[in-house]
Amino acid sequence: MHALIGMNRIKPWHYNISLHDLEFGGNFTYQGTVTIHTDIEKDDGFNDVILNSHQLKVHSAELKTERAVNEAKDITYDEKRQRVTFDFGEKIEYSGEAVLTLKFQGTINNIMAGFYRSKYKPKGEVPASVAKDDEFHYMFSTQFESCDARRAFPCFDEPNLKATFDVEIEIPKDQVALSNVPEKETKPSKKEGFHTVVFKRSPVMSTYLLAWAIGDFEYVEAFTKRKYNGKSLPVRVYTTRGLKDQGRFALENCHQIVDYFSEVFQIDYPLPKVDLLAVHEFSHGAMENWGLITYRTTAVLFDEKTSADSYRNRVAYVVAHELAHQWFGNLVTMDWWSELWLNEGFATWVGWFAIDHLYPDWNVWGQFVTESVQTAFQLDALRFSHPIEVPVYDGLEVDQIFDHISYLKGSSVIRMLSSHIGEKTFLQGVADYLKAHQYTNATTNDLWSALSKASGQDVNSFMDNWIRKIGFPVVTVAEEPGQIGLRQQRFLLAGDAKPEEDETVWWIPLGLHSGSSANAASLHKVNALTQKEDTVREVDDTFYQLNKNLTGFYRTNYPPERLRKLGEAREHLTVQDKIGLVGDAYANAIAGYGSTPGLLALVERFQDETNYLVWSQIVTNLGNVRNVFSGTEDISDALKKYELKLVTPAAEKVGWEFKQGEGFLIGQLRALLINIAGVLGHKGIVEEALRRFDLYVSGEDKSAINPSLRLAVFSIAVKERGESAFKAIQNEYSTTTSIDGKEICLRSLGRVQTPELAQEFLSFIFSDKVAMQDKHSGTIALSSNAKVRIEVWKFVRDNWDSHVHPTLSGNMVVLERFLRFGLNKFADDKIADEIAAFFKDKDTRGYNKGLDVIDDTIRSHAKYRSRDESVVREWLKANGYIQ
């Protein structure tokens, strides 16, 4: 269907890849030979063979069949479609086995795609052979998903053309080479000080999962408790020299999760080893290459003494997510990129499922609801969203769908389905699916069939619209005595779905509880809404709520009086219920289904809340409301007063000191509330933050700031002190040895208050001091800062040709993310017009979807601002926040 080999019907089944003459400096070129064993199907003859190849130079191509050896007479490249054609100059009439041997040259690039290099500053003695320049040393590794194996070697680069791989790499003897499977042997090399590392044969897999790495690596090791073929499996975390001990936390999680998933999926982990590699420059969070999983350093390394505790949660989850892929994605692979969500949505859900098993006190599903579900709602509420399963006609389009829809909406609807049919049944269906399709490819329908069989329900009929239609519904509730009327319609952030955009009728699991009180409420017998409108009878209106624990992927719009009552009953609601209540009230206010005064009155009741995840939802939603009204001075000031009054009791109660043995979530609450209260100007907290900042920066007392409070204290200092704090934190950025230190500095520098400092910060971001992978971190912080947000747009506009585009466009994932999150916080049509006009005549392939998201978000916020401005002002006046 989409295989570019249709014209000569060749199917690869094995690759021999040999890389040699790697240049460890200068141009970073390398030479390679790839031998591809193929089957040619019956054909009426062909003159040429087409492969994927991108930025490679092929020296020669030879096709060997049982009959003859044919040399390519002509080699041509189609740069745009990333293909190479070998013309053999005559018609070849042949079917059966054939071997294609290509000699080629490639470059170890520095754009985090294909076979690439990452710069770092080493700790300890480094072998002389390690690549370096005046300032940095380099490690080499690969990132092939989605379509970048073709940057490293010519291949048939499509997920359903699976093959086995033999890899060998010539390296200096004092460095380490890794690949998907263990080393088989080393062979002597003609070059002094070098040898060739030969790896065992890989299992049958897709090209995007192949991986290798070279560097000055060391490792920490553990073994699984379970036995695999009679032996415990070795599990290792590899780092560049001097960092390996920071891999111990990931290691401890890793061997337990491998055992857990082997049981949950009822299939033993399929490879003889699990390696996790920390990579110094990385475009995503991590990549699930089979048996050699690569990570950005902050997603796999953690130091008990110097890391912020939030990274503990991040490392545990990312490790679980990538391990889930070893079965779901690697053992069984989606047939084509349009079903990417199958990989990502499932790995996201089951990653959290494993972390809940290991850390029951983290309230993982509360975190899932505030981070994953709410974030998915945000993107899916736009006209320019896309269905979970999205048609992809060309592999090159796929990078833009590695987004919140594939990962977060995907995992949200999986959670909805698993809670509907029951977790045990759901996982049994998944295990059956994996067994049926191992080492091959499968589709969404294959998964639905396995789940239908396991549950005895027609899963396809109720999931189809969730997967293949755009958007999600809001359920509006109307109360009548003893019954409620329900109506579903498509939820749009702009609140203006036209009839032709609102034709989908979703299957909606109601999760309706009602009773004489919140405590006495029980599940109602009517469990789903399957039409546009319906009436549910026998509802006790003393207390009722829809969508218990927010397991359904929809918004609920209650009458204002009911919202108030639910707020009053909040101590009887679960953490997920509270998050859903606040999140829905906020979204309905923006879209105009509800009102901002309703939201403000509801949230006011949460002053005595003690849960971090609920506060996180409140602070995020109020921050967005403040963002939208930041240009209206009286409302802006009043909303700050309102929020400061709201958070003050909780912030003062949680205090500054971390106590021995207190839970993870208490520490997270402290970090959140000190940050928000300080930035809003709480006098006592500001003074204490600055006192600690001075002790820390002067070097007098480095323990004055707990690692988890660096973001809060640095942010408060930058806001209050301006240039002197800005300089001090820039210095901290360049000298920090903490693995998360650079990310934290960039995020806090975004709190600058003057256009001059904002421009200075943007110039710093675009200097070579900030790694490509981190350029979005500081920019996102600036874009969330109403004082200087406009400077991001000015910088993009004025430096597009000189800095922004040349620096970021080598890797479209990075450019798209930078724009999408750097420009989406405005609430002014005029700016949306400027952005649209600026990009009108540019080639926006690779980031056009991001521009649509920016435009739709800005215009929806602008509409909200003009619609709600007067009622918000009125409420703030009536409640004493505007004199």
TrEMBL record:
One of its GO terms (biological process) is proteolysis. Residues 11-209 form the Aminopeptidase N-like N-terminal domain. Zn(2+) binds at H321, H325, E344. Binds 1 zinc ion per subunit. GO terms for cellular component: cytoplasm; membrane. The active site is at E322. Signal peptide: none annotated. Its cofactor is Zn(2+). The keyword Aminoacyl-tRNA synthetase does not apply. Gene3D superfamilies: 1.25.50.20, 2.60.40.1910, Neutral Protease Domain 2, tricorn interacting facor f3 domain. One of its GO terms (molecular function) is metalloaminopeptidase activity. It is an enzyme of class 3 (hydrolase). It holds the Pfam family Peptidase_M1. This is Aminopeptidase.
